[in-house]
Amino acid sequence: MSHFSRRDFLAASLAAAGSAYSLEEWAFANQSETANHPNLHIAPFRFDVSPPKGHSLCGGWIKPVVGYDDSLEAIGYVLLGAGKPIVVCAVDWTGLLNDAHISWRQALAEAAGTSIDRVAVQCVHQHNAPFACLNAEQIVLEQGDLPHIVELDFFNECLEKGRKAISAAIPKAQPVTHIAHSQGRVDKVASNRRINRDKAGKIISMRGSSCRDEHLRSMTEGTIDPFLKTVAFYNKDKKLVSCHYYATHPMSYYGDGRVSSDFTGLARKQRQQEEPGCTHIYFTGCSGNISAGKYNDGSKPMRAILAKRIYEGMLASEKGLKPEPVGKLTWKTHDILPPVRSSFSVEELTKTISNKANSVVNRNRPSYMLAWLQRIQKQIPITLSSLQVNDIKTLHLPAESFIEYQLRAQKMQPDEFIATAAYGDGGPWYIPVAEEYPAGGYEVSVAFCDPEMDAVMTQGMKSLLDS
Fold this sequence. Notes:
Layout: H1 6-15, H2 23-29, E1 41-48, E2 67-68, E3 73-80, E4 86-91, E5 95-97, H3 99-112, E6 119-123, E7 131-133, H4 134-141, H5 152-169, E8 174-175, E9 178-185, E10 191-192, E11 196-197, E12 203-205, H6 214-218, E13 227-235, E14 238-246, E15 258-259, H7 262-274, E16 279-284, E17 290-291, H8 301-319, E18 324-325, E19 329-336, H9 346-354, H10 361-377, E20 382-389, E21 392-396, E22 400-401, H11 403-412, E23 417-421, E24 430-431, H12 442-445, H13 453-465
Parallel strand pairs: 2-15, 4-6, 5-7, 14-16, 21-23, 22-24
Antiparallel strand pairs: 1-3, 1-8, 3-4, 9-13, 9-18, 10-17, 11-12, 13-14, 19-20, 20-21
């Protein structure tokens, strides 16, 4: 099991650069005609990450795997020819936290012959899926009577699949000459969960991923980002990779033990089936306070209905794609060290975890809290990153960030196209904006950072997006 220190984290950034492939050797053998980046190529990859039967789902506090409605995938691309290789990957898991997230980035970096700081791994956040934290797994294993957070053999198998997928993809990389961006409105999917408040602004009740309370469903959508955004890479007029970004919790229903990529995954798979020559990737935006609750009663037919709405949003977005030659290309990173929740105590969390009278969720969840506290004590940072091509900027953020961060990023650069993916390193769990902490509610109660996190995150975003 991995146990990263700050020194390990920094060392991994350097060590990965010398492994697997020499960029100079690769570039010499692969020539293209892209104006500012004559050797720019893209190597899409994908591999199955469906957990075996009996494996825990969503941290071990819902029903484990009993069957499969459809598979879970990790899908991404390697960009070659713009400095050290860049790797971007979306994973159909609930989350990758702390050492688990670093391990994924390190494995993909090694396979691509790059450094860990040039790898972004974002989860889609379906719930009938693994919620992997190696540190929390060690904590629950020591108790002896709690279900796994993630089984290590399966976790390591996924890393090996990722290494093999990238190693197989790079020799088949294709030239990237053009890039395009567009957006399309998605109707009747996203709604704000934190909509029912008292006169003082405090949360009374929330709309979850599904909601059968007619009063809550009749209330306004609230603050959302209604647009699905697409960034696509081309070789001349051939579309090679199409990346889709939309902000909502991607669950129609869950907890039945049946693995599924759910409605966003089904929409992505439909586009993939229609365009087998183009790799379609879906990223979940800042959805900590966004779900389909206004439009989803949790019944099984709603999964297909919501999938159709996302699919139609993809089509609407792609309809506006207008490829333009690739010009300036930049990869930027910014490390942050978030402020841990001041109420967290090693002694109190340990006592809660070891109390066998508590429910599984009230023992497993504190293990994630303890893992986060221990990480911050080691001063292991979270890396924010951004790929910037022409006037297009993608933004990779951690955990369950509130929608306000995504909208804030767009306001920072109103003349540029900003596509945001959240659910990177899930260590902090929920990341509300500062003004929402006094309102309370579920999301604030399971935020692992103090309100000062808002300023830390916003400054990190500003650093990335400033030209």
